[in-house]
Request: fold
Amino acid sequence: MIPYLVTVSRRSPEGRWRGLHVPVLPLLVVASPLLSLAVPAGLIACLATRVSPVGALRGTGRLLWALPGTRIEFEQGGTVVLVRVK
Reply:
C-alpha cells in the first residue's frame, strides 16, 4: 500500500504541538516534472555504479510499501519533530 498522508508535528519548547498534513498524491502530481528528471538521473547512476535498475526499482517499491504506519521522531534541545506516515 502506497502512503497517502504524511503528518509532520512539531512540539515547541513550551510543549505546544503544531501539525502539518501533507497529502502524497497531489504532491506527486505537482512534483511530477521533477520526477521526470530524477528517473533518467537514477538510471544513469545505476548504470555508472553497475547496479541493476530493475533491482533498484524493486527496492524503492518495497520501501514505499513498508512506509504506512511508520513513526519517526527527532529531538534536539527542547524541540521535538514527529513524522507519521499513514
Observations:
- The radius of gyration is 17 Å.
- The longest helix spans residues 24-48.
- Helices lie at 24-48, 53-66.
